[in-house]
Request: fold
Amino acid sequence: MYGRLARLRLHWYARVGRDLLARYWQWALLATLLVPGAPIVAPFLRFAELLGIAVAPGPGMAGHAVLAVVIDLMAVLWVLPQRRALLGGAFMEYVATLPVPRHVRLGVGATMLVVANGPLLLAAGLAAARIASQAEGVYPACCFLVVLGLAGVAQHAAVSRRLVVLGGVGVGDLLLAAGLDAPSAPGRWGLAGAALAGAVAVAGFGERLAEAGGRRRRRRAGRVVALDRPGIMAPALRVQWGILADRPVLSVFRIGAAVALAFGVARLVALFDFDSRAVPTLIVAVAVIGLLLAGLYRTLSEAHRAAAGYLASLPLPRRYWPLRDTGFLMLVNLVPLAVLLRPRGQQGGGLLAVLAGLVAAGQALLVLLRWPVLHGGRHRLVLSLLLAAGWSGAAMAAVSR
Reply:
């Protein structure tokens, strides 16, 4: 049973990975062209150094605890973008109804994490070789295995959204740090064993708690929650926010990157004291923000396409979702634009007119980007970049007049 389930999960993982590569290879190529000598191997070497420092003597209990938490956080961030591929898709909802033993499910899940962590495990191998050559005794090597085990438990908790397990991982990090700083050998070994055993116990408890929570949620399925009550939020907005919430990594990345870029460029313009470099910088920033948020058109469109059969049975106009998705993203776009182009009264009315024009032009660019994103096919990135570049040139020419 383990072999069959593992083969099916690995096949799904390879299929999703292939689709992601086909979708985003243009972004990877563009990043390689724009950043000569982009670091590819160096981050994994730094991660190997971090793993070695985490069990090395010297940092103290607080330092070891912080390093262990940082390693767990990096491991979770590595695996979160692969969450959809690791969960197995809709097929696993069917498997959940079958009498598959719990140890088989956990074994298959562990196998998938090993596959997903391939590059990180290579870095861990380098760190293990360095620890074995420098350390005295087997205690640092055992602590190193405990660090890897705690990171794996944290990844499992993040992928399965059982956040209560992360509390056990934090306790394990503290016990491990105390063991590395303990003066006596029995205390060190006892704390290291308690760290790993506690994390495993909390993982099992968290899984049973999540199952109980799922049964409780099913019993309460008929109850009305606040946001589902009429008048709290428009139905279209509830659907759109739900789509983005169902894809948290991609949505948070795009919206967060747009807002962070707006804050950074606003700070840069303030350092320029709004000289001749400021307006071209703002124009380029507005174009990049539009490119970042335009990717959400595809996210929303794919979700609507999946429900096309149900939507066809409703008395909705043909352009119902395209118009509302465009308006929704224009509403989201107001947040980074407000940060980036906030009024500066000391610069006079001419500047306010320029900023208002950039807001309107930025919204128009976001509307225009819908076509290449949804209908550009394999060339959507190139077409979007050409459109944004043309818009930037036209905006700079208009401002220069």
Summary: The CA atoms of residues 72 and 281 lie 38 Å apart. The chain has a mean pLDDT of 80. Residues 185-219 form the longest helix (35 residues).
